[in-house]
């Protein structure tokens, strides 16, 4: 079946045809939320693209949280150029409401990352809203990193991973909502990631991070209405994912909100922030980078002129996507020592 009903509202015990529930939210045709609280989800994305698996990258799925039935997907080059490879987390996007490690765009990008970065790539799933509102996704991102620590310290680890993985060179990256998760992990783990020993996080890569706030930025208000991630969809994702009764100034949403942790006083590992020039989220990403740089953090900001939200997965073979891959590789090499 293509679709899953998470919760049903219609009672068809009698012979009459029930009235269909009233739809209040539609997220790219993949998630529909109804007024009565029922939820419809598709098992597939709203687009169809082929998986480009040419055999140059090996991959497999591994469970990392049995309580919530969560899995992650591991990737590694079939013929690695080095005996030990850095580890690169890629946490998928989708406004905390949609997306999966299994979606073709996610898998194809992970193939690229593993091959071109010569890295072990870890792509975890996480619980989605509105069934599981924040902080569920952040908790699952943390659990996915703790799983790696478990492998590093296990008496009988998965040698498929441990034979090639360098646990002292870990980079945590996320796309959109995944970039938000990466930020919150950076705040939780702090510089040096001591609680993960012997795993050592060396840096973070935020790809078009999904940050919010109650006050609109200039580009959110005046940017292109035809944007891939438009303002209406941004608002919908936040409405469905933030804790009930909270606003988009919640600490997990707005890094500079009124009750958010003080990043100026915090020691953080190096961060690379990447955004497209036509992405409505770009002002928030740039403000984040500018403030942290002013506060003396090791942070770099890269804006790709004219590019939309998620350009690197929408067209991973484009010239900007290739330039981005080189930029990520440079960041990894710079902070691997």
Describe it.
By secondary structure, the chain is an alpha/beta fold. The chain has helices at residues 104-117, 136-153, 159-162, 177-189, 218-222, 231-241, 282-294, 311-314, 319-334, and strands at 3-7, 23-27, 31-34, 39-42, 57-65, 70-77, 85-91, 120-124, 165-175, 201-207, 271-276, 299-304. The strands form two sheets. It has an eight-stranded mixed sheet, with helices on both faces. A hairpin with a 3-residue loop joins β2 and β3 (31-34). α2 (136-153) crosses α4 (177-189). The longest helix is centred in the middle third of the chain and has 18 residues, at 136-153.
Largest sheet: 8 strands, mixed
What Rg is obtained from the alpha carbons, in whole angstroms?
A: 20 Å
Mean pLDDT: 93
Query: How many alpha or pi helices?
Result: 9
Taken as a percent bin, the fraction of beta residues is 15-25%
Number of DSSP strands? 12
Estimate the helix proportion, in percent. Answer: 25-40%
Termini separation comes to 48 Å
The ordered string of helix (H) and strand (E) elements is EEEEEEEHEHHEHEHHEHEHH
Q: What would the principal axes of the Cα set say about the shape? A: globular
- Strand arrangement, major sheet: 5-6-8-7-9-10-11-12
Ranges where pLDDT stays below 50 over 5 or more residues in a row are 1-15
| Broad structural category | alpha/beta
Q: How would you summarize what this structure contains?
A:
With 337 residues, the chain is α/β, with parallel strands linked by helices. It has helices spanning 104-117, 136-153, 159-162, 177-189, 218-222, 231-241, 282-294, 311-314, 319-334, and strands spanning 3-7, 23-27, 31-34, 39-42, 57-65, 70-77, 85-91, 120-124, 165-175, 201-207, 271-276, 299-304. 29% of the residues lie in helices and 23% in strands.
């Amino acid at each position: 079946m293509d679709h899953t009903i998470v919760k049903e509202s219609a009672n068809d015990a009698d012979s009459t045809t029930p009235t269909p529930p009233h739809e209040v939210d539609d997220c790219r045709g993949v998630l529909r939320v109804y007024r009565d609280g029922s939820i419809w989800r598709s098992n597939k994305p709203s687009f169809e693209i082929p998986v480009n698996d040419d055999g140059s990258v090996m991959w497999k799925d591994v469970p990392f949280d049995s309580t919530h039935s969560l899995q992650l997907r591991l990737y590694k080059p079939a013929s690695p150029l080095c005996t030990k490879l850095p580890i690169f987390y890629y946490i998928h996007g989708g406004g905390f409401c949609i997306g999966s490690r299994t979606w073709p765009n996610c898998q194809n990008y992970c193939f690229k990352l593993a091959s071109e970065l010569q890295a072990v790539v870890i792509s975890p799933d996480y619980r989605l809203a509105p069934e599981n509102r924040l902080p569920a996704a952040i908790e699952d991102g943390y659990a996915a990193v703790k799983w790696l620590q478990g492998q590093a310290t296990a008496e009988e680890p998965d040698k498929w991973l441990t034979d090639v993985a360098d646990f002292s060179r870990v980079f945590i990256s996320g796309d959109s909502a995944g970039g938000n998760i990466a930020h919150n992990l950076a705040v939780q783990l702090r510089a040096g990631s001591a609680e993960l020993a012997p795993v050592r996080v060396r840096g973070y890569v935020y790809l078009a991070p999904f940050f919010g706030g109650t006050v609109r930025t200039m580009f959110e208000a005046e940017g292109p209405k035809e944007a891939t991630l438009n303002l209406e969809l941004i608002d919908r994702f936040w409405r469905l994912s933030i804790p009930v009764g909270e606003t988009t100034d919640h600490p997990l949403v707005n890094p500079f909100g009124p009750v958010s942790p003080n990043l100026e006083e915090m020691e953080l590992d190096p961060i690379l922030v990447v955004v497209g020039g036509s992405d409505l989220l770009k002002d928030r990403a740039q403000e984040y980078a500018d403030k942290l740089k002013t506060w003396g953090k090791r942070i770099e900001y890269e804006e790709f002129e004219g590019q939309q939200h998620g350009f690197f997965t929408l067209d991973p073979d484009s010239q900007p996507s290739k330039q981005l891959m080189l930029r990520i590789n440079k960041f990894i090499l710079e902070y691997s020592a």
